[in-house]
Amino acid sequence: MKKTASFLICALYLNVAMAQKTTITVAAFPAVDDIVKASLQVWQKKNPNVEVKVVGREYADHHTAMTTALATSTGLPDVMTLEYGYLGRFAQSGGLEDLDKAPYSVGKHATKMVAYAMAQGRSPNHGQVAIPTDIGPGAMFYRNDLLAKAKVNESELTQSWDSFIQSGQKIKQSTGAYLVAHARDVKDIVIRTGIPEGQGVYFDAQGNSVVDTSPRFKRGFEVAQKIRTQGLDAKINPWSNEWGESLKRGTVSVQMMGAWLGGHLQNWLAPNTSGLWRSTALPERVATSWGGTFYAIPKNAVNKALAWDLIQHLTLNSQQQQMAFEKFNAFPALIEAQNGDFFNQPVAFLGGQKARLDWKATAMQIKPTMVFKNDSVAEEIVNAELDLVLNKNKPIDQALKDAHRLVQRRASR
Q: Which of 58, 104, 286, 359 is the Cys-Cys partner for 259 at CB 3.0 to 4.6 Å?
């Protein structure tokens, strides 16, 4: 009887403990889902009665699911992961918590984070709706072996866009390799150069299109057209199988993206090319960002206090931020995490270069720009018009006028 009674008492306590256990959900995409999982071993020591369910979906599927969840208030996670390219759309939806307000009061942590990334997570109408966890300082990765064969110096790539194109001519003549995968990549950088404070890439502070009024776009189209006319781009879209093969085989000599590309090249895109790549600043030493990851809390989330506690662990804990960089190439948005010894170590894949210090310097030079809900739509329209310029010889001035009209029409809906 005593054993039976003891068993019943233990079972009762177990049931009570299980009943008190809380489950929170984190919705993420690769490889953020792996970063969150790797962080839980430490976080759950302080929160033993919390189970964290990480729901991972492919990049596009994740953002589609989150759009639906916010619109219908069903299937909402407690922690929502957002990539920079989608941030404007979500930031102005009105469906995310303002982290400036109590009990979050994220403003007291603002100076701990890279300034431009914090600005990206802010909505003019809804406050600080997202906090950055990793950033993508822009970098130019190039094949050092191809440059050596063509007798081109790194400084020739970075000096100016004209010098960049001239370098591409030498490389192609000497090696047969293209300068870039797609001329669109160059346009993407030029239009992000010299954006006035308070404006975005495609819109001014009032949400009006600047596609036809800002000289950034005309210059971007002109440089891209020159590259295409001279046969210096391979006409390959990023992330395609053909693109991956070009990086492995050295048929493309330069790829401009976020600093995180170095890890992708090393780990899965072109691991057999170790020692052949180098990293440097973008042409004209442009300091711009390329992607980044943010965490947000939906207004209708169930466990907001626990969600915020976990987000703080993921974003404001220096050791956690450093782990994410060392294991998953997630460049830390937390400034303190950029001071670790890992940044001073040579990168073997990049020929022993101390590239992380250069990426850190670029990150601190990037100026804040605003994001808007129609950024992704504007990008599609501008790219479509650029394709007409590159493939059908459409006049640039007309292409920009048409793009401006379409962007303005979509933004005013």
A: 359
